Amino acid sequence: MNLNNFDRALAFLAPYGLKELHLLPFHQHGASKYGLVGVDYAMTDVSPPEKDDIEPYIRRAEEAGYQVVVGG
Predict the structure, then answer these.
(1) Which DSSP letter does residue 30 get?
(2) Residue 7 to residue 30: CA distance in whole angstroms
(3) Measuring CA to CA, how many Å separate 11 from each of 3, 7, 30, 44?
(4) Residue 20 to residue 27: CA distance in whole angstroms
(5) Which three-class secondary structure state does DSSP give residue 67?
(6) pTM for the predicted model, two decimal places
(7) Angle formed by the axes of helices 51-63 and 3-13, nearest 10°
(8) Which of 5, 9, 42, 66 could covalently link to 61 via disulfide, CB atoms 3.0 to 4.6 Å apart?
(9) Nearest 5°: phi and psi at 36?
(10) What's CA 23's distance to the chain center, in Å?
(11) Judging by beta carbons within 10 Å of its beta carbon (0-12, 13-18, 19+), is residue 57 exposed, middle or buried?
């Protein structure tokens, strides 16, 4: 998701009066489960985002008035 789309999501959520926003960055934790059920895992070469990659989203959400939790 790019920042423009994220801003649109924040605008969509604004009328609901939410106080907290959980950002759940991509991770590889479930990759091994695909093999257990005989399915190819298509995201093997995708790296989880670095903290610097997530920071602009955290900042935008905080500026919109949310308490931000990263990772659940």
Answers:
(1) T
(2) 29
(3) 12, 6, 31, 33
(4) 21
(5) strand
(6) 0.79
(7) 30
(8) 66
(9) -65, -30
(10) 4
(11) buried
